[in-house]
Fold:
Amino acid sequence: MFDGREPIYLQIAEQIRAQVVSGALGEDEQVMSTTQYATTFRINPATAQKAFAELVEEGVLYKRRGLGMFVAPGARERLLERRRASFFAEVVDPVAAQARVLGIPLADVVARLEQRFAADGDPSHTADDGAAAPSAPDHPQEDPR
Amino acid sequence: MSFAVEVRDLTVRYGRATAVDNVSLRLEPGVVYGLLGRNGAGKTSLLSTIAAFQRASSGSVLVDGEDPYENARVMAGIALVREGGDFPEEKVRGVLDFAARLRPHWSAELAAELVDRFELPLDKKPTQLSRGKRSALGVVVGLASRAPLTMFDEAYLGLDAPSRYAFYDALLADYAAHPRTIVLSSHLIEEVERLFERVIILDQGTVLLEEDAEDLRSRGRTVTGPQDEVEAFVTGLRVVGRAQLGRTLQVTVVGDLPPGAEQRAVEAGLELGSVPLQDLFVHLTSKGERR
Structure:
């Protein structure tokens, strides 16, 4: 847990954001304490505190004196909005760049997207079965956040 | 309760050998420090002088604002646990009683809990214990003292892996509940690096760096890709290591990347990777890379 290049406090912050977005952490729900983070993941409590400070700044968490950290009302909606705003730059653009490098035509990428949307049962999209959809690349671009 | 430490122009000499060479350093109260250095870098001499186990050749040490040497109040608040331990010639039970009388913040409860966890025999003398158990006794005394300045000088390296993890867990839990200034010295870094808030690297008796552990960790990068592209990318950066495999080159750089560098790396088909603190330490302190 918490490997990779990013500083651990950023990874903790990102994990909490993900839990808020997925609904695993609801509004006004309490987040694990710095002590719990420290002992569970064997990290310095100050590291967890740094993550909390960042999330308070963003309006994702708020502090109740003497009790701990809680998910701010409206936090999920705020995070979703931010993610929508950065979706094209951070998710779609790398896909386009990767497709260009690999020589995958735009039509194939679009076909794949349409297929996925259809498979996920989105009623506003239907798959075009005209061309065989290309298989996914071996190493899909990760969300860089 | 936490002590601050102020080291000014400290030099420690043994005959003609200089162990600590004009070191100035400030330890903030309530912070967990990692003191890293190769064998012979001066870690033990520095800690022993801070703990007033020995005198400075020149320069000064202030702990909680006072010279700790022959200073009963300050000495009672400094716990230095050394490998092998400095124990009175008594049974384990007596060693703990002795520490309890000496240490104003002693926790008998924590001591009992840790004795249980490390399965220490109370009616044996330290000299009768295995290396691992003797290390465990040092850890128990060090933690249960709850000293405002607690220093472990590689004291936990004699423990086996499960006991070391038990030590890390106990340290974090008790530190979170009772914050104090803690220094962990080690040359084995991987296991302990996340316990540190700040890192001090000693090299040949001098302080190579003192900085936030997270910042330090994010300062090292590996750049991997075609040789020419990598060479072009790292021009102007501080290169501390390189490894070549065929036409692929991996270079380790230290320092902040210029703005836009990550984007340029992606466009050039280069891979940026992380450098574990252990590797960064090896690069920074290995012969030929020193500066």
